[in-house]
Amino acid sequence: MTDDWANSRAEPGLDLHLELPRGGKTEALAAAIRGAVREGRLAPGTRLPPSRSLARDLGVARNTIAEVYGLLTAEGWLLARTGAGTWVGPRPDAAAPPRGVEPWIVPPLDLRGGIPDASAFPRTEWAAAVRRAAQTASAAELGYPPPLGLPVAREALADYLARARGVHASPARVAVGRGFGDLLAVTARALHAGGARTVAVEEYGHQSHRDILSAAGLCIRPLTVDGDGAVIDELDADVVLLTPAHQFPTGVPLSPSRRAAVVDWARRAGGTIIEDDYDGEFRYDFRAIGALQALAPEHVVYLGTASKSLAPAIGMGWAVVPDRMLESLAEARLPLGRGADPLTQRALADFIAGHHYDRHVRRQRAAYRARRESLADALADIPGARLGGLAAGLQCVVELPADVSEAEVVAATAREGVGLQGLASYLPAGRASRRGPALVVGYGAPPEHLVGEAFAAIANAIRFAPRAPGRG
Ligand SMILES: Cc1ncc(COP(=O)(O)O)c(C=O)c1O
What we know:
Layout: E1 2-11, E2 14-21, H1 25-38, H2 51-58, H3 62-75, E3 78-81, E4 85-88, E5 109-110, H4 123-136, H5 151-165, E6 174-177, H6 180-193, E7 198-202, H7 207-215, E8 219-223, E9 225-226, E10 229-230, E11 239-242, H8 256-269, E12 272-276, E13 300-305, H9 306-309, E14 317-320, H10 326-333, H11 342-353, H12 356-378, E15 386-388, E16 395-399, H13 406-415, E17 418-419, E18 421-422, E19 438-442, H14 451-463
Parallel strand pairs: 5-17, 7-8, 7-11, 11-12, 12-13
Antiparallel strand pairs: 1-2, 3-4, 6-14, 9-10, 13-14, 15-16, 16-19, 18-19
Helix pairs in contact: 1-3, 2-3, 4-11, 5-11, 6-7, 6-10, 12-14, 13-14
Bound molecules: pyridoxal-5'-phosphate (PLP).
């Protein structure tokens, strides 16, 4: 026999269905939650209701719920952090997901590389821009958009990029897409159609970007990254993808001599540089490093995105391309489906023209600057830990003492509900790391009131990591 609490009102917006076998309340409830996790009804990462509201819904004492949460946390079924709540942990007995179907789990405290603070998203101003877009779009703008984007968006972006990032831009040379990834795919296909076959890519970076380039038919050649950015002397390819303002994820800018060297390479070899300016707006120590594109507009495809400055959900990116590539870019667009949706393009144009974009970036620059200072403070007294790449962006690198394992520190932070990645995980498969153990810490995403806790969890994971003297 079972008692059945269907759709109990655990807290606004969160219904928890639990079947409670007969028996002592604590054990019965623990068994019910274990069963729900085992059967996959409560997925990893699901946040459980606060003990007070679950107790009220189930008609049991609050202490019973606290005891059950404590028991299941000790057993590893649940994860908990003071202030952040309780959520379902990874299933210890989980069968491997089918190939290519990774579970989509956002860690409760998300410190993966370079995700912005969603709690700071300018909801009111953005909603007003979307509303105006819907109310004022012309009949043509409500139809299928031109392949390179709506004129109004291309104009606003050309104006903004020239003013704020020093890009040589005119509306005719701006293309709008669904984000960086989308425009990288379009650019890669256009370059392949024009005869390019190889692309050099900084050895540290996103596998998804390497996959996009490979899917376009380009063969990847990894480029070493050192303290001055990508090693340009190694360049032997038709195209190079770079993050010159703030290498992702190591955080170093491409040095002035290497900026000059890569432009020289492009002119000499007829090569194309794809500049990924993903977080160029966020520079903290001195004036922003201008876009590399300004040095050689006829050799650089400049790509930017709203994913860091506003939010990934906006789904907007922009390209400024050499004149000679405009036609091939428009042709490459078609087989890849339409780009950004026209109403969002219009909303972004309105948001930029009303200077809301500038205001938001300036506000966030100050907020992120303060966060990186708290991170530096939290890690200041840990012997052997060193921060790098802090001068810009939303992520930095924490070099670990040489006798500590990157994977063990990542696992220890995960147990505290803090999700981040080791530096080595950004290398392509099979490429050996030439650097010591390090963490990539994205400090943009956690809500302001949990930032301190997240940083303390990282500091503790390093401080109490097992030491293996042979490793160093
Ligand atoms: C290095 C780098 N480039 C570009 C992007 C933006 O990509 P998208 O516009 O597709 O979200 C990201 C976002 O994570 C990034 O880390």
